[in-house]
Amino acid sequence: MTNLILLGPPGVGKGTQAKLLIEKFGIPQISTGDILRAAVKELTPMGVKAKGFMDSGALVPDAVVIGIVEERLAQPDCGKGFILDGFPRTVAQADALDQVLAGMRRGIDHVVSLAVEKAELLRRLTGRRACPKCGAVYHVEFAPPKSADRCDACSGELIQREDDKEATILHRLTVYDEQTAPLIAYYGGKGLLRSVDGLGTVDAIQASILSSIEAPTR
Ligand code: AP5
After folding, report:
1. Is residue 86 a part of any domain in this protein?
2. 136 within some domain
3. What three-state secondary structure class fits 161?
């Protein structure tokens, strides 16, 4: 069983790496961002409530995201393990996750912390394009689609996320520093943290993640 958390600032490559880890371990990715965006698209009551927070780059209230993750972890496909991407994002969320997992007699095995410098995060996020139909993610420079503005996998029209405008990105990065970065020390103190350089090719970073989680606990 592999229970993983991918931790790191917006744009560091959590979603990109999670997709490869799904293939490697055959366990699901739980992206609170993806779940919230689906709720916004479907205009569910949760989505309507979350939209304003997300568009401005603020965090959605803890109680909402904790509820989402608790429900998702109880689903049978998480039995073999899971990859949490974008959760937890506050110490309160991390404490709640510990409680939920303790109730299931489970725990976190590794927290992979990815980092790159701010200028690179801005480059990655301003150039990101996403397919709203199938969820594929591209980058205008680093991972361009074969034909401009069309998804290679399903031909859907690619979009720029509402929160990938420069001013909103800068706010998201501040929110990360203030509310999420303290989790590095939180998980370091529990002996779960694996720090991985997020700069390099997608494949090289994947290899570093795999060797970091296969290394003995320090
Ligand atoms: P969420 O969707 O989780 O966004 P995020 O954490 O800000 O992360 P991103 O999806 O922006 O980046 P990523 O690290 O996955 O990078 P990616 O792989 O796409 O959250 C959105 C919002 O939802 C939040 O602001 C908040 O409002 C709400 N929310 C979600 N979870 C919440 C929670 N727990 N609590 C409260 N609120 C919550 O890569 C980025 C780009 O870089 C792509 O274009 C990719 O192609 C490119 N790229 C990736 N790797 C490389 C590489 N090695 N080299 C070059 N380019 C690369």
Report:
1. yes
2. no
3. coil
Q: How many domains does the chain have?
A: 1
Q: Residue 186's closest CA among 7, 18, 3?
A: 7
Quote the pLDDT of residue 212. Answer: 95
* 181: CATH: 3.40.50.300
Ligand 1 site, CB within 6 A: 8, 10-16, 32-33, 36, 53-54, 57-60, 65, 86-87, 89, 93, 124, 128, 137-139, 142-143, 163, 172, 202, 205
Model-wide pTM > 0.90: yes
Domain residues for 17?
2-27+79-116+175-214
Query: Which atom of ligand 1 has the smallest separation from the CA of 87?
Result: 34
Ranges under pLDDT 70 in the chain: 216-218
pLDDT, residue 183, reads 98
Spell out where the chain has E strands: 2-7, 29-31, 81-85, 110-115, 128-130, 137-139, 193-197
pLDDT recorded at residue 148: 86
Going from the Cα of 121 to the center of ligand 1, the distance in angstroms, rounded, reads 10
